[in-house]
Amino acid sequence: MSEMPGDNTRLLAGSREGRDAGPRGAAGLAESPASPARERTTEGALEATARERATEGTPEATARERTAEGAPEVTVLERASGRGPEVTVLERAGGGGPGTTAAQGQAIVTRGLTKRFRGGQVAVDGLDLAVPRGSVFGFLGPNGSGKTTTIRMLLGLVTPTEGTWEMLGRPMPGAIPAVLPRVGALVEGPAFYPYLSGEANLRRYDAADPAADPRTASRRIGLALERVGLTAAARKRYRAYSLGMRQRLAIAAALLGPRELLVLDEPTNGLDPQGTREVRALVKEIAADGTTVFVSSHLLAEVEQMCTHVGVMRTGRLVAQGPIDEFRRLSAGETVMIRVETPDTAVAAAVLTGLGLAGVRTGDGETVAELGALAPETVTAELVTAGVAVRGLAVQRPSLEDVFVRLTGEGFDVDG
Ligand SMILES: Nc1ncnc2c1ncn2[C@@H]1O[C@H](COP(=O)(O)OP(=O)(O)OP(=O)(O)O)[C@@H](O)[C@H]1O
């Protein structure tokens, strides 16, 4: 999505006025604006802040969960309100104590990054992002939640209204000339010529980069094609490429040169299932080579498959962030339910209550309870012994999506 011409937002630090500057025309940012207050936990732990987004005056409940022995602690402060809590689960930026700047362990750090478009639309609101080096960071959020705008700010294509950011340990946008050559990006797909081969297209692309040495172009292009698995199809015309091959060529264009960070905006959007699989596999391969990958998506399933870390956006705000394993651990700690399908709902309820299960309730042809530590086979045996006609029995374990919905109040597309 491109910025409106004449956007005259300005940097808080006042280093630039008026129009956005291109990547090479950017001036330095000064001090970071104050970040929102945030509950601190111990070194390496997750941090959490909760903000009320429901009605005033509701009682505040505090829940502290220790997920596992020695595991990072997640503090969830929530208001007992009708809607889900708004929780920011933030991993502390790379081991830095108070007073340290963005740690070298982070590929991207933002503080209070905000974009307000002309007309007042706040596309990104006070973003505090921490993307560890070596991670595959899934930037997850529904359409319109501010992912593209964030990526464009990170790359210096759109000027933030407020906030600061660092990439590869350097303050931006001042360090853009030094940093961007080490960053590959795919924001809007590059336009390729249909009648030229993949290789010839990359050659044109490479030639347009003033920083690229023409004497080493062939080597760069060969390596990029090899990296995305298109060496054999290098001389085929672009129009004969499948959707997946086309997207892999676009990623090759972002990989012309050694990159420490690859930024991909919805790289599987519009692809067929085969193309989607190819791109996901490629992302994993690139990450396995040591490149940090920051990839946006509106599909939770995709982020789950590809990513080691996740940041969740909703209406311009980052509502949860951390290693995907931590979210998995949270989901493992959630209540497992048992659902018994039976015409004998009252007897079944009595059996489950007798077994000490909590939250027993009956519905139309079913009895439901929290399974707790009991084995489902124990429950089944007791039901049968009591003469309950069991037509079906299901154990419902919460999914990662359940955790995200609880944390963010937001559902995600789960197809693909
Ligand atoms: N140039 C612009 N001028 C005004 N509003 C804009 C501009 N670009 C984006 N927006 C608005 O900012 C919000 C966030 O858009 P953005 O494209 O960043 O979201 P997204 O999460 O990437 O969604 P999508 O995947 O649909 O692009 C949207 O409401 C969008 O309409």
UniProtKB/TrEMBL annotation:
PROSITE patterns: ABC_TRANSPORTER_1 (PS00211), ABC_TRANSPORTER_2 (PS50893)
GO molecular function: ATP binding; ATP hydrolysis activity
Segments for region (Disordered): 1-85
Pfam families assigned: ABC_tran, DrrA1-3_C
Signal peptide interval: none
Keyword terms of this UniProt record: ATP-binding, Nucleotide-binding, Transport
Keyword rRNA-binding annotated: no
Residue ranges of every copy of the ABC transporter domain listed in the record: 108-340
Protein name: ABC transporter ATP-binding protein
Species per Swiss-Prot/TrEMBL record: Planobispora siamensis
